[in-house]
Amino acid sequence: MALSRFRVRASGVSSAHVACSSLGWGLTPLAPTPDEPGTFAAAIELPHGLHEYKFLLDDAWAHDPRCTLARPDGFGGFNSVRLVSPIPPKPPESLRVLSLNLHAHQEPEPLRKLEQIALVSAALAVDLLLLQEVAAHLFDPSLPNAGEVLLGHLRRLDPRPWHHAWREAHLGFDVFREGLSILASCPLHDVTPLQLSGGGLARIALLATLQHQQRPLVVGTLHTTWAPSGTAEVEALLAGLGPGGSGLPALLAGDLNGGPSAPQVQRLLAAGFHDHGAEHRQREATFLDPPRERIDYQLTRPGASRLRCLGQWRLWGGDDGLGRVSDHAGLLGDFAWSP
After folding, report:
1. Residue 225, Cβ density class (10 Å: 0-12 exposed, 13-18 middle, ≥19 buried)
2. CATH architecture of the domain with residue range 2-84
3. Which pTM value belongs to this model?
4. Residue 76, SS3?
5. Domain 95-337 CATH superfamily
6. For 188-317, where are the alpha helices, taking DSSP H only?
7. Is a pLDDT exceeding 90 seen at residue 124?
């Protein structure tokens, strides 16, 4: 629980209330603020999670004009949306990265969950999303490319110029074009898919280059198979990336289908990548169904410059008030250049 302050300026109004979804849409009165005539405010204790709310000004409903996050209210208008979370604000000059295996269109209410992911991303000022199992249904037009759906939501919620790169990896269950997505609030250059394996469940990595704080950075998303196949796929990834050291630094995220001691993970560490989940003692499971393991990672490899991870948090793990959006939890990391 946390205190959340609601404030609205409404000149000429005699009473103001706020109604919040998490409080059953009951009305909570807002008190006039003595130092700001025409302004009403109140602090309300709310649980962690996403909260829809609306103001009642005398007898008229209104959304919060100061809030850029909103979703349709079902009556032709909008509810404002607020995230209550223990995650701190994004540090200045940092790159905030969200990674997640979407399990797209295989979860209940998939389109609503994509909207929730976009709302949380916008509320947390995420700069870069690195996603796996990003699908489009072959025959059902109501289930389009999940990355494009997210792109549309992010462009509505966040004024930055969002960009999206998606590449197909394989056909899932004979109905899903399943692939990988990179969504970034800055232009993506040199978008490159690396073929890691073939066959019916072929695996790829998707790489791109972006500029962060006027320095180039290779970013990538990948989804490997279990060992031993996953180890061979990591070898193909490393061959495609080329050696580290004096080249471009790299930031990768993905579902490696193995815990920290798995051969494919150990091979990446031996190649100079840093597991920032281990660094920040992130031991909670990221695969949420049995056998419940930490198999999702955010990793960096230094080049001519080095990124440090300022913090990492788990999202949609069932313990943060956000529920579940996938059979995986997401990871949120803040990255900054080392001096």
Report:
1. buried
2. Sandwich (2.60)
3. 0.95
4. coil
5. Endonuclease/exonuclease/phosphatase (3.60.10.10)
6. 229-241, 263-270, 276-279
7. yes
